[in-house]
Every structure is written in C-alpha cells, then in structure tokens.
Design a protein that fits this description.
Blueprint (H helix, E strand, L loop, with lengths): L4 H7 L2 H7 L5 H16 L2 H6 L2
Length: about 50
C-alpha cells in the first residue's frame, strides 16, 4: 500500500465528515475505511490494520 493511503482513505472521504458530526459511530467509520482499503489493496490489508 502506498505511503499515505490510510490517511487518504480515512480522512479524505465523505464518511469522515459523517463520523465527525455523529451520524456514523467511530466503529462504523473505521469499518468503512478498512472495507475500502481491503477492496482496493486486498483482504490481507484487514490483517495489517488489526495490528
């Protein structure tokens, strides 16, 4: 995964704003970030994020 990918997927997406205003929970937001990363970079990404 390229440098900065996690930050880009986490903070430069409309769901981040939804989480900041309380529409999504932190867990929902984090799950969405993990899902999008796994979709684009493969399922092994979820294992790396769990560390």
């Amino acid at each position: 995964m390229p440098a900065g990918a996690i930050a880009r997927y986490a903070y430069h997406h409309p769901d981040y704003r939804l989480a900041r205003v309380g529409i999504l929970t932190d867990d929902q937001w984090a799950e969405d970030v993990a899902e999008r990363l796994a979709h684009d970079y493969g399922p092994h990404t979820r294992t790396a994020l769990a560390v």
